[in-house]
From TrEMBL:
Subcellular localization(s) per the UniProt record: Membrane
Protein name listed in UniProt: Uncharacterized protein
Species the sequence originates in: Citrus unshiu (Satsuma mandarin)
Membrane topology (UniProt): Single-pass type II membrane protein
InterPro entries per the UniProt record, alphabetical: BC10-like (IPR044174), Glyco_trans_14 (IPR003406)
Broad class of where this protein is predominantly found: membrane
Amino acid sequence: MPSSPYFYSFALFISLSLLFFLYGPHILPLKHPPTSHISIADDLDDLSLFRNATLSASSSRASSSKVSHLSFSNARPKIAFLFLTNSDLVFAPVWSQFFSGNERLYNIYVHADPSAKLSDTHKLFQNRFIPAKRTERASPTLISAARRLMANAILDDPLNLYFALVSQSCIPLHSFRFVYRSLFGNSIRVLNAFSTQSKHKSFIEILSRDPNLAERYAARGQYVMLPEVPFEKFRVGSQFFILAKRHALLVLKDRKLWKKFKLPCLNIHSCYPEEHYFPTLLSMKDPEGCSHYTLTRVNWTDSVDGHPHTYDTGEISPALIHTLRQSNSRYSYFFARKFSPDCIKPLMKIASKVIFRD
């Protein structure tokens, strides 16, 4: 057996190199700031909330009695609008006009980052804020916030049968009536809507072909997602969606995939958990029940640092609204993003005569 000190030095070098190669990504300090991590306390707190929401919805006997009672009062199913924001809700006047006259057909829930500086809240959003926690772009905190919104909406009102996630930079492209009838069709009475829930489709982008798919999959480490999420099951899509209630409950019940997607990323430039988790989960659970396309229009032609094109005041016109509505699916787009805050005035000028005239 060699006894030369050079041999032992070489062996030590090889051993350390192998350790670095195999375990380095897990032991080296992460470049992500601490806010990107989900603390154990926050995770347990959320799990308790999600469990309460799923238990509330799963009691068939209670649901039956509620539906039966509500049907006699001519109640209708509702759409829960989930606003995920980290800044001012500057487009509140547009949304206020969108919702006007339909008070019994929707609910609003807002998750505002605690660090966000909000000016005086528009009356549309007063008392609509849920208990929120810190969020950060390109981190699992955005997944948690979306799940938190759905859980609160399910607990708040059993009539919430669709859940539309939007941001502070989103605007509606149609009237509320157009959106409502497009989702529920003729099943506008609560009894019919509840009995046909299994047929309600979710509108979420699910893509299996993306030039950066492999890099995104390996953002947490080459083999970290295994065995729960093999590469061939990994999907990408839009951060914003409209989920049917049964799919919202699937999201809240999930523990298996969340265990993987809540892990911090090593490659932050390919880490967009909120664009991966929901498409992957729903593609694995119920691909036929999802549209595989989004109803929120986004312009990625000249994106900057992962952000889509931001429309400014000079671009706002009736022609733009009509263009943004156009899609390749059976539905036209319902919403669009991303708009700069100073677009509010030109948008309000064309709201009643263009945006809300279908």
